[in-house]
From TrEMBL:
Entry protein name: Nuclear transport factor 2 family protein
Organism: Parasedimentitalea maritima
Pfam families from the UniProt entry: SnoaL
Signal peptide range in chain numbering: none
GO biological process: polyketide metabolic process
InterPro entries recorded: Cyclase_SnoaL-like, NTF2-like_dom_sf
Gene3D superfamilies with a match to the protein in the record: 3.10.450.50
């Protein structure tokens, strides 16, 4: 399997809320995660992030991505995916009543590989803007 194929399958599984049980097949067991976003400040593993995404789709069950770009950098062993996340807060997940507000959030994943599996992923995302759109901030 190529880096591109692995990254595409991981990206889709992560973004559709499959969680770590499915996503781990494309990752090293101790894969790390980073983002300069307060909403993800406590998340440091890719396992934690994939499960966070799974949880996000509870209050936003129509959450889906619109892929804008997908690029492989073989020299550096990474793959970048640029997308827009769309969804509306329609379900009470136990923390607040649905706001009925929608989000349209640009973001980028930079997936660093070691061999055929992801060893680290960075998410570039303006969480403050997204939280305001949803009425959560």
């Amino acid at each position: 399997m190529t880096l591109k194929q692995s990254a595409q399958q991981f990206f889709d599984a992560c973004e559709t809320g499959k969680g770590w049980d499915i996503c781990k097949q494309w990752c090293h067991a101790q894969a790390t995660f980073s983002a300069q976003a307060d909403a993800l400040a406590e998340v440091s593993t890719l396992e934690g992030y994939t499960d966070w995404m799974k949880g996000l789709l509870t209050p936003i069950p129509d959450g889906h991505y619109e892929l804008k770009s997908f690029a492989v950098d073989d020299e550096r062993g990474n793959v970048m995916a640029a997308a827009v996340f769309h969804g509306t807060h329609t379900v009470d997940a136990g923390s607040s009543a649905p706001t009925g507000k929608s989000v349209s959030a640009d973001y980028v994943y930079v997936m660093d590989f070691d061999g055929e599996k992801i060893k680290h992923m960075t998410k570039i995302w303006n969480d403050g803007h997204s939280l305001k759109q949803l009425g959560w901030a």
